[in-house]
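Justification of computing resources. Each target in the renewal requires a structure prediction run like the one illustrated here; the chain below, 148 residues long, is used simply to show the kind of job we budget for.
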Amino acid sequence: MKTVIQRVSEASVTIDGSVHGAIGTGFMILVGIRDEDTEADVRKMADKIMKLRIFEDAAGKMNLSLAQAEGAILSISQFTLYADCKKGNRPSFDKAGKPEHAKKMYLYFNEYIRSQGFRVEEGIFGAEMKVRLLNDGPVTILLDSDTL
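Resulting structure tokens:
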């Protein structure tokens, strides 16, 4: 499982011309799933994300978690995080999870975070989406479940 976490002042996802989800302060997370990923991997990743201390405290230091910042999450499925560009110029996505498994794990990721008391907005798995965000900092963190 791979994620790209961006600390945002605001973010939204539009599908078919209508805003489907929007947040103010929080994280916009791109979520990539592979076939080997399990619910345990998803929980481990989500737990790490929820505890990341990347919001500024009163002294301007990155010291506050998402909960302390009273932030929300905009979660977007993103199979292209598993792009392999080693051969040629057209990426291969063979390492990305098959849609049935990836969708199940993506939805589990969102529900698990909600179960921990966070507001989670999301895109629609497999849909053509337009994502807008105002990256705050900018702060962007890449996480891979293989290295957690």
